[in-house]
């Protein structure tokens, strides 16, 4: 028998913990299943790491060469955001058009 526990986080997101005897628990954040390693379980409480799963686009001065949409940018202002993946985190770089595309 599957047990579902729902939590409303202070930032407005919703976390669901689904447990089934004999199976690994599944954690959903706003309906998207989360990878192990991005959270920990304490009893029936879900504790997420301090690093955000995805950040907003931030302006960043490209002091080193970065590739955006097949072009190299260096010594200019670009945008970047942090993405958390199961093996760790990484930065995604974009220009003003990428920022506008995702802001819709």
Written description of the protein model:
It is a single chain. The protein is mainly beta and 104 residues long. It folds into two domains: 3-48, no CATH class; 58-103, no CATH class. 8% of the residues lie in helices and 50% in strands. The chain has one helix and eleven strands; from the N terminus they run βββββββββββα. The chain has one helix at 96-103; strands at 3-8, 14-19, 26-29, 32-33, 39-42, 45-48, 58-61, 66-68, 71-73, 77-85, 88-94. The strands form four sheets. The chain has a four-stranded antiparallel β-sheet, with no helix packed on it. The longest helix has 8 residues, at 96-103. The model has no long low-confidence stretch (mean pLDDT 81).
Give a brief rundown of this model.
It contains one helix and eleven strands; from the N terminus they run E-E-E-E-E-E-E-E-E-E-E-H. It is mostly beta strands and 104 residues long.
Major pleated sheet: 4 strands, antiparallel
Tally of structural domains: 2
Strand content: over 45%
Mean pLDDT: 81
Radius of gyration: 18 Å
* Spatial sequence of strands, sheet with the most strands: 1-2-3-4
Report, as a whole number of angstroms, the end-to-end distance: 41 Å
Outline: elongated
Low-confidence regions: none
Order of helices and strands: EEEEEEEEEEEH
Question: What is the number of strand segments?
Answer: 11
| SSE-based structural type | mainly beta
Number of helices: 1
Proportion of helical residues:
under 10%
């Amino acid at each position: 028998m599957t047990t579902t526990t729902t939590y409303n986080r202070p930032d407005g997101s919703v976390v669901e913990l689904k447990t089934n005897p004999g199976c690994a628990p599944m954690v959903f954040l706003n309906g998207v299943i989360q990878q192990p390693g991005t959270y920990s379980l304490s009893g029936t409480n879900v504790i997420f790491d301090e690093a955000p799963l995805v950040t907003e686009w931030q302006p960043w001065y490209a002091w080193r060469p970065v590739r955006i949409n097949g072009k190299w940018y260096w010594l200019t202002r670009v945008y970047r955001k942090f993405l958390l993946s199961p093996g760790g985190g990484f930065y995604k770089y974009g220009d003003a058009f990428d920022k506008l595309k995702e802001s819709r």
